[in-house]
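Example 329, ligand calcium ion.
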Amino acid sequence: MNSNQFNRFNKVYTALLIAILSIIASGVCAGNFFAVGDEDLMRSGNPENITRNLDCSSAVAVELSIWAEIALEGSTEGIPDSCNSYSCEEWNESGGEIIYELQVDQGIILHATLFSESDLDLILLSDCDPDLCIGMASSEFSAEIDSGTYYLIVDGYLGESGAFTITLETMPAWLSQEACDLATPIECSSIETIIDSNLFEQPNLIETAECSGFLERGGEQWFSVVLTDTATVDISLTQLFFDGAIWMFNDCGPDAECIAFADNGTIKEPEELTWRNDTGSTTTVYIGIDSFAPVEDSWGGGFSLGITCEGIELPAFQSSWGAMKSRFR
Ligand SMILES: [Ca+2]
Ligand SMILES: [Ca+2]
Ligand SMILES: [Ca+2]
């Protein structure tokens, strides 16, 4: 498999996974859970003697708000194994476990990354019960969760134990206001506006939404266009070295809707998106250029954006120029 094929495979897989998880999530679990990089994981099944005596009374409390960046350090060395099986995966988690009680004050996307020399895993539970498993990951996950109390467990695969660090980063479960505030307004017309821009060191304000099938973990550049009723906007993303994506939102904040999304090509492949304003009124749309993975430098983050609009109704004083001239005769 060449790297493009691999990336495509990887993305098709993650899209499938997200689709499956959202079906499961709607019935059983709270929110979308996405384990990063676990698709090639080879694991043996549950232990023969299952023990599930999870005790969260001495869990370490962690308060999580939006834009948190928390590092947790610990070690499971010498800690007894109270629970060796969780309902999400048939992994033998016979190492000792450390439990964190996450107190979440509003809907967030939680991004957790585990660093360890030992084969430790992360388990996210919606309550202190191995059957109420939201997801498991060998090193990294992203999960959309509502406000409430959750339990994050560090456990050891096949009896492993050792020191670890976990970073917890959170972002809003919606497009944050910053995206709309930072958006560059584009005067859109039937003559294509071409903008050369860059994703390097841009803030990552959105990773996933209902319209998207992928987790877009890079930072974005935002643009805005005002569309009168029935007008159409055409966006093309070209001359890029990353795996680009295009978002389109009608606003920012919890009530904003993702109205269109494109991520059909893989690395360096162009993306296109068209949207027609059939809302019945003039609408400002926010266009985000994103990347599947964060770009590493300004060379890798460059892109060219083309924006064309058709059918934009000009304000009355411009469209009735003839009428205005006649007034001065
Ligand atoms: Ca265990
Ligand atoms: Ca992003
Ligand atoms: Ca793409």
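Summary: The pocket of calcium ion (ligand 3) is lined by residues 243-245, 263, 265-266, 269, 271 (CB under 6 Å).
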